[in-house]
Write a structure and sequence with these properties.
Layout: E1 10-15, E2 21-26, E3 31-37, E4 42-48, E5 56-58, E6 83-84, E7 91-92, E8 102-105, E9 108-112, E10 150-159, H1 160-165, E11 173-178, E12 187-189, E13 191-192, E14 201-208, E15 222-227, E16 234-243, E17 247-253, E18 260-264, E19 270-275, E20 281-288, E21 291-297
Antiparallel strand pairs: 1-2, 2-3, 3-4, 4-17, 5-16, 6-9, 7-8, 8-16, 9-15, 10-14, 10-16, 11-12, 11-15, 13-14, 17-18, 18-19, 19-20, 20-21
Length: 306
Amino acid sequence: MNQQLWTRTNTVTQYDDRGNELENQDAIGVYSAAYFGYNDTRVTAVAGNAQRREISFEGFEDYQYLNDCTQTIDNVIARKNIVLYKNRMTQIVPTAHTGKASLFITGDVLFVNYLDTKCEDNSTGSRPVADIDDNCSTCAAQLNLKSGQKYRMSVWVATDASIKIGGSPASQLSIALTFPESNQSVVLEFEAEKPIVDGWQQMVCNFVVPDFEDNSINNAFELYFSNSAKAGKFYIDDFRVHPFISNMKSFVYDPYSLRLLAELDENNYATMYEYDDEGILVRVKRETEKGIITVQESRTVLKPNH
């Protein structure tokens, strides 16, 4: 067979250990990627014109899931490509932009795309211990942005006051992005780009990744959330990063039933799904710059058999 007469329409370039397709490349070399969560059972983000190493999404819904190695070390084998660094996170239910959970902070919080904590011999008794003689970058799928490329980060933020009485939560929160190993000293500030929706406001940052020494394979960055309102709680939810020229959609599920609760579009605005006690879809809501509107509602009943 003459292979020159054939065109490869799709090539799968990455799988995970469950057989989920993480990345593929089409006939003209354009990449598409997917991101999985909930113990790798549900797709949480898909992106076109992006590689797997360039995307991330975090809705904070499945942080309490048991992992395969250890439960007693926070975020060591977390199956995340961006993690909290030396901080203990707390989930708040039902305060969330979408789903049932968000991350709340009272002081300052640092996220990183690298891990430098050694794996330790800790076990809960319900999972085997993995003895790995290496640092945990071996275990984590890292978010590795490309030098010279433009990216977009966005996150939804809220405070107790903004949820109850309105106001701008972004005015009390500073978010800075730095590249500690870069040849350049770069500090990028997030800005509030969109109106406030039910107390939540989206903050975004468009940036170009600087050059790194020796063409480092891990372009480390640090994402620093600084809460100027120390006395009040701050909530963050639906964080995402992807190439500026790509489109991303992300998904939020119920952590117990795994029903789809929200789908976030390319602008990080949500379509929300509500169910009755039997798991039947009864209401669809859509988030807009003018607020949340109901676009569909239905009820299903069974006629008595008599």
